[in-house]
């Protein structure tokens, strides 16, 4: 075939400006505003403690919390506690991911089945699931298993619901393309259905990883002798406010790192998606 | 030489395709399409008979709801006809409500929307038909880059569709349709969403693609002047039920430049077709 020699309009040389051509300072803004807000918080915190004079039992000073955090990290057993909580969160999240994707994909495709289980799904969703923790302790004991089950149960719903939506969101125009090309089932799945659904899987996973942490921690609050949640409760029982705050700081760090891990995987797997490009 | 000829069910216009060995003709005979709805049956198409010669360019025009898109979807293999037969190169495309994939594999489809996959870059989109046929990665990339050049997308091969303008997306969609060297190109208002200037340019380019590839083209549009500009024959459809009202040969010489729209012959054809469309009411 010959090349068509018509290169006069702007359409060929210049693409329309899109959302991702935002100013560079907009992209860097969170990296500047984040530390500023953290400093402001610490400043306000220190001000409240030293000027207003709030009791050390109610609000320990940032320095005291930092000291407690240092002691914690210098201790021998802290990494064991972090490891247990991480194991519970990741195992629960992993189970929820596998089961959630499988159930969501089936319910998204089989309309009658989805209608049939709809009442059960709604019932399960409106129930405050952390109320099940005592039951799970009875069933699975005080070890990590009951926490893994709790984390998985909380993480399951956002993943399953998103996948169900994603499976149904295949563009009818895209379907026409694949049908027109006479694509088989496997080719259709690999080239169209899977890429359509992946952003929904990640949208669910981003919520689910946070829910998994909640599930594991609440589980540890209510039973057992390991994990960061247990450390929170034991610090409370010892009325050791600086240590309590320090463990919560650790929890925030662990939770943030897990969330960042999920979004990083998302950026690697679906770099083409709007949510990756606009950073939302 | 342009006499105003409005012929009902005329024979295919004599066209000499550059590559007559590959192009195939289409034959539509007695095709009905009936949709069952809550208020009874809707006749989208009724008694469609149409012969399209190998390498011929046929435009389907008519108002919204006249069944032109339905007819194209039947030809594309996306919609089974309720009654009647569709043949491509003498081979039946629908056998007992089931499509013969071997027939439709020869077709290239372009839709109203570009329908590019946002997860693929432009080359990967263009190479998709080759990927489905098991062409190796290197070969299909080379071919896709060649096709991008054909449709004027050089330099945008590795862009994602969202980075392209509407016109460029539609070019990519055309390149994808051309990837398997289709013998038949079926286009459903491919330039409908484009601005008038881009549309004029795309029409010129499409004319060239048709001339070079020698493919049979069926082109759905609601613009009479676009239909006349591109086609060897213009098929006018009327709605409720969708029927062929007339078939008008366009014997303007090719290649047609944009100036052809200023000639008397072109104007007469457009006026005659428009008058016919108005007679419906």
From TrEMBL, chain A:
Domain ABC transmembrane type-1: start-end pairs: 82-266
Protein's UniProt keywords contain Nucleus: no
Higher taxonomy: Bacteria, Bacillati, Actinomycetota, Actinomycetes, Pseudonocardiales
PROSITE patterns, per database record: ABC_TM1
Membrane spanning stretches: 36-58, 78-108, 120-142, 148-170, 200-223, 243-262
Signal peptide: none
SUPFAM superfamilies, sorted: MetI-like
Entry's localization field: Cell membrane
Protein name (record): ABC transporter permease
UniProt xrefs under Pfam families: BPD_transp_1
Keywords: Cell membrane, Membrane, Transmembrane, Transmembrane helix, Transport
Family affiliation: Belongs to the binding-protein-dependent transport system permease family.
Membrane-topology annotation of the record: Multi-pass membrane protein
TrEMBL record, chain B:
Coiled-coil intervals: none
GO molecular function, one term: ATP binding
Ranges of residues in domain ABC transporter: 26-264
Pfam families reported in the protein's UniProt record: ABC_tran
InterPro entries hit by this protein: AAA+_ATPase (IPR003593), ABC_transporter-like_ATP-bd (IPR003439), ABC_transporter-like_CS (IPR017871), ABC_transporter_ATP-bind (IPR050166), P-loop_NTPase (IPR027417)
Region of interest called Disordered, as start-end residue ranges on this chain: 1-21
Basic and acidic residues: compositionally biased ranges: 1-11
Keywords for this protein: ATP-binding, Nucleotide-binding, Transport
Keyword Iron-sulfur assigned: no
Keyword Nucleotide-binding: yes
PANTHER family for this protein: ALIPHATIC SULFONATES IMPORT ATP-BINDING PROTEIN SSUB (PTHR42788:SF13), TAURINE IMPORT ATP-BINDING PROTEIN-RELATED (PTHR42788)
Name of the protein this chain belongs to: ABC transporter ATP-binding protein
Species of provenance: Actinomycetospora chibensis
